[in-house]
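Q: I have 53 residues here and want to know how they pack in 3D. Can you give me a structure?
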Amino acid sequence: MALPDPGFSTPRVLGVDDFAIRRGQTYSTVLTSVEDHRVVDVLPTGEAGPLAA
């Protein structure tokens, strides 16, 4: 816990994928940095509106 948080830069290549939180009922969208192999954000819905915003 004494280590500082690593500095993250703005991702140049962004991956987008949908996944089911509950089998067949609730879908979310995950945004990942393709270069760093890390999760950038998780959007609460699988709809295109929040992703476009």
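Q: Anything worth noting?
A: DSSP finds one helix and three strands in the chain. The beta strands are 14-22, 26-33, 38-43.
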